[in-house]
Automatic annotation (TrEMBL):
InterPro entries: Acyl_CoA_acyltransferase, GNAT_dom. It comes from candidate division WOR-3 bacterium. GO terms for molecular function: acyltransferase activity, transferring groups other than amino-acyl groups. Residues 183-336 form the N-acetyltransferase domain. This is N-acetyltransferase domain-containing protein.
Amino acid sequence: MFAELLTVERSEVFRDLLASYPFKPYAEGALFSGKTRKETKNGKEPAKTWEESLLSLLVASIGRAVESGGIARVYCADKKVVGLCVTELDDWASRVLGRRAARVSHLMALGRPEVQTIIKQLILSQTLRETPRGTVLVARVPYVDLSSINALERCGFTATQTSIVMARELEESLPDSTPLGHYEIAAAGPDDVDEFDDAEFDINGGFLGWDAGLPCTVAARVHRDWLRVYARERRLLMARDHGEPVGLLAECLKTETEPLLGFRVGSIDLVKTANSYRENGVATDLISRGLAAFRGEGARLAELTVDSMDVPLIRSCQSLGFMTVGSSLTLVNRRT
C-alpha cells in the first residue's frame, strides 16, 4: 500500500517528501549542476527526471525494508493512504543490548505541516502500541522535517545526537592542503580496535541512537564492536604516529544508488582523532585517504556525517572541498 502513497497527488508528495530526502541536495545542482542525469540508453526513451529517480529509489528502499522483515503501517483517510511509518528490526543492536532494538526508517504523510504532524503522531502511537515493551526505537530525521520531529517528540522520543551531513564530488582533484602531521595510515583489523584508548577516542554516547544512557564501560564496548564491523570489511582506517593509534575513520560504499541515480556514493560514517592530536592534520590525512579509495571504487560523490559540535573537524572537511548539504537529529524511545 505504500506505493499508493507515493503515486497519488504526486506534486504534493514531492513537495513534502523530497524536502527531507537524503539525496535531494545532490539533485538540486548545488554539487552537480545537473551533470549526473542518466543518459537515455537507446535514444528513444526519455531520461528519468531527478524526481522520478529519487522516487524510484525511495520505493525500492521501502520495499527492501518490508521484504527483510520490516513492518509498514499506513494511515488512511477518505479511502486513501495519507501516512506511512516503516520500522525495521536492528539485529546487531538487539544482540548487543540484550533487548529488542528497531529503527524508524521511513515516516511520511500528506497535507499541510500541522496536518502531517497529527497524522505522523497517530501512526507513531499505533506503532508504539504494537511494539513489545522493552524495545528501543531509534529515528534519524532531517532537521528540515519538523513535522516528523514534533510527532516523535510528542510520542516520547528524546534527542541524542545532532549531525551535519557534508558532501563533495570526486571527479575533481583534492584542494591543496598541507597537513601538519605525517602519519602512517593503513586498514585496521578487528584486533587493532583494542589498541584504541577509550579516554583518547571518546565516541559520544547516543552516536548510534540506541547507545544513549549506557554506562561508560558498556558504551565503550558497544562502540568497539561497532568499529569491528567496519574492520572485518576492511573499511576501517587507522592513523598511527610512531606506532601509536592517533586517528580512525570508518567508511562504506553505497552501491544501491547506482542503478537509479547513475553513481555510487562513498560514505564516511565516523572520523575520530585522539584528543592529544586534535587539529594536527590527522583528520585531513585520514579523509584524504578515504576519498582516494572512493575514487578507486568508482564513487562519484563522497558524503560525511559529523557531530554538529565538532567545529575543528567541520573546518577540516571544508578545507577538503566538502559542502554542508543537510543536518539530522537522532531521537530514541525506550519502551518501558
